[in-house]
Design goal:
By secondary structure, the chain is an alpha/beta fold. It is 48% helix and 17% strand. The protein folds into two domains: 125 residues, Rossmann fold (3-Layer(aba) Sandwich); 103 residues, 3-Layer(aba) Sandwich (Rossmann fold). The chain has a four-stranded parallel β-sheet, sandwiched between helices. It has a four-stranded parallel β-sheet with strand order 6-5-7-8, with helices on both faces. The N and C termini lie far apart (43 Å).
Length: 264
């Protein structure tokens, strides 16, 4: 009986302590990114999630309200990062693209530093920076971009990725957001936008926004139809987490970026 208990507790300990841990910070109303992470996560990694304060702007359904909420989220990021750090995570991901390019080049590094310091030095990746790194990993410069953002936030996206060295050859957005009445409708919207924004000049397609429902599930179909690599905010952020953890393996459903392995 003693030997049996030792075996059982040993297996429990391996399941709990033998895995690397991703800590995900996601905007309060965004469940898309954690759904994508949970679908892709390998058995050797565990996922821990905390919500980000997104404020309560006076005009929540306006571009001004969105920008205010993103700013307040960044201003208040230390506390949720500190709490997430108590889970002894190995890497923390800031799961908001617009919230990490909001104030232009360098703001992603500012958010990174705030989170890492608050969490006790945990290595940190942020969505906007992860997207840039993923595009560079794929060796592309000319990109077609689609988003669900209002034009006020799209202007900031263009500025950020142009400064990062990319040539945005085509751009499309749906200010009203992406349909989310059903998973099928969301996937159809992601597919329609990605195929619509593609041009012969584009070397890759970027689908921006960690709340872009259906984008993560459409990566490989879009790549098959366009013969081009596709980068989404969630896929790039997940890739950056695995790279930070030095987890190197094939992740089904994530397209060319992780088709063979994660570059450590």
């Amino acid at each position: 009986m003693v030997a049996f208990r030792q075996i059982c507790w040993g297996r429990i300990a391996m399941g709990r302590f033998g895995k690397k841990r991703i800590g995900l910070l996601t905007p309060a109303g965004n469940t898309t990114i954690e759904d994508d992470f949970a679908r892709w996560i390998p058995d050797s990694v565990k996922l821990h999630v905390n919500r980000l304060f997104t404020g309560s702007p006076d005009r929540p359904n306006t571009p001004e309200g969105l920008l205010t909420g993103l700013q307040e989220m960044g201003d208040a990021v230390e506390e949720p990062a500190r709490w997430l750090g108590t889970a002894e995570v190995d890497v923390i991901a800031f799961g908001c693209t617009g919230g990490s390019f909001l104030n232009g080049p360098g703001y992603d590094r500012e958010i990174t530093e705030k989170i890492s310091t608050a969490a006790g030095g945990v290595q940190t990746v942020v969505a906007a920076g992860a997207v840039a790194d993923a595009l560079k990993e794929l060796g592309v410069r000319r990109i077609a971009v689609c988003t669900p953002y209002p034009e006020e936030l799209n202007e900031r996206l263009r500025s950020f990725y142009t400064a990062a060295g990319f040539d945005i050859v085509n751009f499309a957005y749906e200010d009203g957001g992406i349909p989310q009445d059903s998973a099928a409708e969301a996937r159809e919207a992601a597919l329609r936008m990605a195929l619509g924004v593609d041009t012969p000049e584009a070397e890759a397609i970027l689908i921006s926004c960690t709340a872009f429902e259906g984008a993560g599930e459409s990566i490989e179909l879009i790549e098959e139809l366009t013969a081009k690599p596709v980068v989404t905010s969630n896929q790039a952020t997940f890739w950056a987490c695995l790279r930070a953890l030095r987890v190197s393996q094939h992740i089904p459903g994530t397209g060319r970026l992780m088709s063979e392995r994660v570059t450590a």
